Amino acid sequence: MNERISELRAAGEAAIAEAPDTVELEDVRVRFLGRKAELPNLLRGVAQLPPEERGTVGRAANEARKALEAAIEARAHELEAAELDARLASDVIDVTLPGSPVIQPGRVHLLTATRREIEDIFLGLGFRVMEGPETELVYYNFDALNFDETHPSRQATDTFYISDDVLLRVHTSPMQTRAMEMHPPPLYVVIPGRTYRRDNDATHTPQFNQVEGLAVDEDVTLGDLQGTLLAFAQAIFGEERRVRLRPHFFPFTEPSVECDVSCFNCTDGYLRDGSRCPLCKGEGWIEILGAGEVDPNVFEYVRDHGYDPDRHQGFAFGMGIERIAMLKHGVSDLRLFYDNDLRFLEQFG
After folding, report:
1. Domain boundary residue, one of 90, 124, 144
2. Do 86 and 156 fall within a single domain?
3. If pLDDT is split at 50, 70 and 90, which confidence band does 140 have?
4. Percentage of residues in the chain with pLDDT exceeding 70?
5. Is the pLDDT of residue 86 over 90?
6. Residues 171, 73: one domain?
7. 183-198 burial code (b ≥16 CB/10 A, e <16)
8. pLDDT digit string (tens) for 290-302?
9. Residue 120 belongs to a domain with what CATH number?
10. CB neighbourhood size of 170 (10 A)
11. End-of-domain residue from the set 60, 90, 120
């Protein structure tokens, strides 16, 4: 019996040493140490041997099993290392090639695309693009824009305050004063950027995007403002668009107006089937922004920078980028812009 165990051990060690790969090594393991292999069966049959043979046979069979297991483990490490080296040498990946499957490239977010389109329109009209701080001083956000001390927007229920004198800007209008402090007249700028207010519903979010416009020169009239807004509306909504100005009030403009654009979804408020247009509610006009002639009191804050309220006039306007995008692309809920839902965003490639 001991001779047979020695033969099995020698045969197993030879087969293990000759195994060319891990697959063949697994076959050797099953052949010599598997559940139906001869050596394990010998171990299981030791109890049936005569008492005087059990010790020597059991010890020899157990030593043979452990020797083969150790040899298999050592050979497995050798083969695995060799196979890894072979794979590293043969599976060379060119990381500069496109993936498989090809990953779709990213796209510009609809709000970014709308912002860039607005900027391009006003660049074509002779304006420059500027940017300003989102964390703003109360002085620039309210005081220098002629806001009354009791104006509701100054309250903490409407505005995010960081301290008594610092806040998150509620509009891009503070850049009117900053721009005039940095550049003497004439001045033609648009200022896009994020703004913050305590609102959250289908048409308002706590963070939103605005574009402020400011034109200051001599003999700038409300007619110049209307012509500028007409050119903008036709560029972004279509050449057939018309604009109208309605009286309104803003602290930093006098006179102040709201600008409407003729509805691009209907004719005079009604659809072809005679039903009332759901977009303009049958009015035939859609509000797009607020504007007006710069209040002389605003110029007083920058008189030392070359702006004389008796000599210079200007107009200012402010529009929400989200609103322009909603109107142009038929988006019903402003919050869709911020949900990061690819089903929505991929419609605007």
Report:
1. 90
2. no
3. very high
4. 97
5. no
6. no
7. bebebbbbbbbebbbe
8. 999 999 999 999 9
9. 3.30.930.10
10. 20
11. 90
Reported as half-sphere exposure (CB side, CA atoms, 13 A), residue 121 has a value of 20
304 C-beta neighbours (distance < 10 Å), count: 8
Same domain, 260 and 137: yes
Tokens of 96: 């500069």
Our CA dihedral for 316, 319, 321, 326, rounded to 10 degrees, sits at -150
Is 191 within the bounds of a domain?
A: yes
Q: Report, as an integer, the average pLDDT of 11-33.
A: 87
Better-scored residue on pLDDT, 104 or 218: 218
d(CA 211, CA 293): 17
Q: Which domain holds residue 160?
A: 110-345
Residue 1 in this model has a pLDDT that exceeds 70:
no
Write down the pLDDT at residue 106: 78
On whether both 38 and 128 belong to a single domain, the answer is: no
Rounded CA-CA distance 111/325 in Å is 7
Q: Is 100 among the domain residues?
A: no
pLDDT (average), residues 8-16: 85
DSSP string, 166-197: EEE-SSSTHHHHHHHHHSPSSEEEEEEEEEE-
What percentage of the chain's residues is helix, strand, coil (to nearest 5)?
A: 45, 20, 35
- 162 token code pair: 């960081």
Whether residues 61 and 116 fall in one domain: no
Hey, is 125 helix, strand or coil?
A: coil
Eight-class DSSP state of 264: S
Measured at the CA of 315, the angle between CA 312 and CA 316, to 5 degrees, comes to 130
Q: How many domains does the chain have?
A: 2
**CB proximity list for 163: less than 8 A, separation 6 or greater:** none
Report the C-alpha gap between 19 and 75 in whole angstroms: 8
The verdict on 150 and 248 lying in the same domain is: yes
Contact present, 222 and 247 (Cβ < 8 Å): no
